[in-house]
Amino acid sequence: MARVAGRSRRRSGKKRDFPAAGGRDEDAFPVKIVISGYYGFGNAGDEAILEAMVRDLRALAPGARLVVLSADPAATAARCGVEAVPRMHLPSVLGALRGADLFISGGGSLLQDATSWRSVPYYAGLMRLARWMGVPVFVYAQGIGPLRRPWLRRLAARALNGAAEVTVRDRLSYEMLLELGVDPAAVTITAGPVFAFGPGAPAPVATAAASPDPAAAGAAASGGAPAGPAASGGPAVSAGRRGDALGPQGGRLIGLCLRPVPGPDGDAATNRVLDALAAALRLRLDEWDAYVVPLPLHPAADGPVLEGLRRKLAARGAASRVVEPEDLFRAADGPPVGESRASGRVGAPTAGAVEWIHRFSRLDLCITMRLHGLILAACAGTPFVALSDDPKVAAHVDELGLPRESCLIGAEAAAAHTLGSVLERAWRNRTNQVKRLHDAVPELAARARLTAVRALGRAGFPGRNGLALSN
Known about the structure:
With 471 residues, this protein is an alpha/beta fold. The chain has two domains: 32-234 and 443-469, 3-Deoxy-D-manno-octulosonic-acid transferase, N-terminal domain (Rossmann fold); 241-380 and 384-428, Glycogen Phosphorylase B (Rossmann fold), CATH 3.40.50.2000. The chain has helices at 44-60, 73-80, 90-97, 119-132, 150-161, 171-180, 214-221, 266-288, 299-315, 325-333, 353-360, 371-380, 391-399, 404-407, 411-428, 430-458; strands at 32-36, 65-70, 83-86, 102-108, 137-142, 165-168, 187-189, 207-208, 252-257, 290-294, 365-368, 384-387, 408-409, 468-469. The strands form three sheets. Strands 3-2-1-4-5-6-7 form a seven-stranded parallel sheet, sandwiched between helices. Strands 10-9-11-12-13 form a five-stranded parallel sheet. Helix 1 packs across helix 16, helix 8 packs across helix 9 (299-315) and helix 8 runs parallel beside helix 15 (411-428). Residues 1-24, 201-245, 331-349 and 463-471 have low confidence and may be disordered.
């Protein structure tokens, strides 16, 4: 893929002479990569993104020196086996960038103003700081937007046009970049990093075709066609494994990944959604012989919402249909999902991505308001209903090749009491959705792993393990 015309790649520090024939000697010249994102805040989705990036980069460059900008450096270092520095401490950030071979921005939804206008100045500022210090910038499978404020759109566009390469996780983000005026020749559609934990993707291969088309990228990464579920060590997707009952007294399990509805009317909108969800579930839990299990991916935000649903179910006489996640998963699955409710926390993202996927694999259905609830369910081969008005959630339903009417409903539509029919349809069509996930996830996993190939190429590391990039 061509870099933006006229953009020079500056380097700080001593010039390094790499072997011409064999590529970079990793032992003599270990690559140093600085990674920026929403890390260290206790959000299981973002922590899974970082885990996936670290795993894929180290699979190709085991000796790479990875330095992460984190809100909780000690926790990040312990979880991922990386160096970590405080993300808001400028001297530490400058020290991390000094002598770096690459600055990675991502993944996740960093350049957006839906949660706060401050996100764009922070992440765009880091990208410009890296370039000022002579470190090339690689945007790693980000979701771009929404960007409603014109001045933030201009700020994001300048930062993105200064990157050595931009990879995005979906076509919606690619189209947003075109709106912003980013050179399409510098952009590749890959996939969200967490999909790399899914089955069927081989290790990254020699050459990735320079194409913004996701199907072409997936084919390039998989050697022409997606491999079968046994091709990787990720969690297996099996269309026929839903016959086992795993809930109390042999009942079915429905996972709940809920979050507050954003916006100025957020509290009232969240309450309307919970009323609709409690009513829809109460009518069906006995009929389906099912139990619900709260799965807080970001406990600080999600815990109160899940507690609210618990109270509403109890008021409808369904308290016995709620399963404590720590009771369900602690014995078999290693780290607990979270602490006891007596501690004031419904859950904490103590488990890693693979553990989360294993837990999702035990569900018969997942109802999720979070994007990474959808992604973890897809990697586990678990059918889901996405309850969200967020365009990025709809974009991922499309990426998975699923019809929106079968598994997606907006929060306001749910509050208007149309949720029950969507749940009924999803419950009846569980086996069909699992088969569709079985077909779609391997290609997304291949595309996700391709991102690490491209990143290492931009770090001046094209010669190891047969990696090569068109440029």
